[in-house]
User: What shape does this take?
Amino acid sequence: MPPSEKWTSLEVIPRRTTAGHLGCPYRAGCYHLRRRDTGELVLFGQARNVARRMSSLLPYRAGGGGHRSNTRKRRYVKAHLEEIEYHTCACDNVKQARELESHLRRRMHIFHT
Assistant: This one.
């Protein structure tokens, strides 16, 4: 794993009606989602801009955006929005984020990115 790996604490996805926002880095890194009610690992991934990638998972009413082509993930997050929690890890570069993602890939997730 990358030597500088430091994950944020788990947070729930804020509702759009509150003043909350996704606490994600605007740079290369990884994200990881799980259901807090069941403990199931939902999905993971890496991105050049973690904040942008994470917002593509959210339903539009919850502040989502982007053009994510895999609507199954977005629908799942929408259906379980109250139970989804996430954390992120900023990386020094995309190569480091890809290395970290390869370690996450070894665990079973509902969606295997």
The first strand starts at residue 11 and ends at 12. Residues 13 and 81 are 7 Å apart (CA to CA). The longest helix spans residues 94-104.
